[in-house]
carbonic anhydrase
Amino acid sequence: MNALFQGAIKFYEEDYNNEKDFFEGLQENKPHTLFITCVDSRIDPNRLTRSKPGELFVIRNIGNIIPPFSEIETQEHFLAITSAIEYSIKKLKVKNIIICGHSNCGACTCVYKPEMLEEMPYVKKWLEFLKPTIESVAAMGETSEHKKIWLTELQNIKQQLVNLLTYPFVESKFNRGELHIYGWFYNIQSGQILNYNFIKNDFKPIAGDSVMV
């Protein structure tokens, strides 16, 4: 904890004072992108995108899950996520949404190792949202546990993109071309980020000549 306190001191004495004009200019919340990702401590949205404070509006939860809109009407305890998405679209008017999953995801591992969830009933309940993802991976017929987990990590991103578009206020702006939506997969080991192509239905590394579709 001492390192965190020292970090807070250095932030004020060095970072803030060295860029005082920039930080004083952050009086309004005007992000251009909603970044939805996992709570995993190894994921740093600003570092991954080399963005500055004020550019990203971030939502984090276990497994970067977006409950389908139909669930919201009967399950009020999902409102924290729904309200944040609604606020970013209707109030902040973000132009982009990125759903970012990652390798070695604990959520995507736990669903195949139920013993890991025995003492975590709330996590177990939350991960029920991964059922459609698990079913789609099962249909692929893969037997290797390692590859099933990897496929689940990728398929989960695609499923959350589907879930996101069940929100009427997201779908309408997306269909009008007023909102751009992306699915990213961050490989922690290699540092590489893959982008999902809606048309080709595959993930490709983000490179200098990448075309965002």
Remarks:
- The beta strands are 33-38, 56-61, 96-102, 180-186, 193-197, 202-205.
